[in-house]
């Protein structure tokens, strides 16, 4: 994720003042980390791109409400997380509706093999790895919104407890509690499919769940 700096404030001041190119610079700065978070949340590339696009629309529409006393990361991820939550709620209420674009975007099940480690040499190993990744994806997707958001922001965006607290609407201690509950629930969900995991295992380190272009390593 981009590091916090005075650049955030400069970009937002430029956007508020109507400086040409200000929004484009914000998009360039935040597009990759936002897509990384939203894709992991939704597990759907088409939906992730739609939500990221809508996030930037909201940033522009609400630009004058930006509070310069808070880091920009908290604000942009709050917008994105709320959009993810709204989409998930809508999908639960309309399970019978199949969005054509989302079907085309897919959930990248068949593409996971491309990102497997080199030591997965045999078809048997590849199949086992795919099954493990699917189990991990399903376990993360089963987490409630606040737990899923906290886990993704902490493990993949490397945000502090304070920053995450501003996104999910709780205290830093509340974030710590949510992360503990999330890890406990993930270990429980994965215990049958991933017996090799120990309580200290990093069960969220399976980078193959995310395509290379979506990694937040910028």
From TrEMBL:
Protein name: RNA polymerase sigma factor
RNA polymerase sigma factor 70 region 4 type domain: residues covered: 134-186
Keywords of the record: DNA-binding, Sigma factor, Transcription, Transcription regulation
PANTHER family: RNA POLYMERASE ECF-TYPE SIGMA FACTO, RNA POLYMERASE SIGMA FACTOR HI_1459-RELATED
SUPFAM superfamilies the UniProt entry points to: Sigma2 domain of RNA polymerase sigma factors (SSF88946), Sigma3 and sigma4 domains of RNA polymerase sigma factors (SSF88659)
Pfam families in alphabetical order: Sigma70_r2, Sigma70_r4_2
Coiled coil: none
One Gene Ontology MF term: DNA binding
Limits of the RNA polymerase sigma-70 region domain: 27-93
Any one Gene Ontology BP term: DNA-templated transcription initiation
Transcription regulation as UniProt keyword: yes
Key word Transcription regulation present: yes
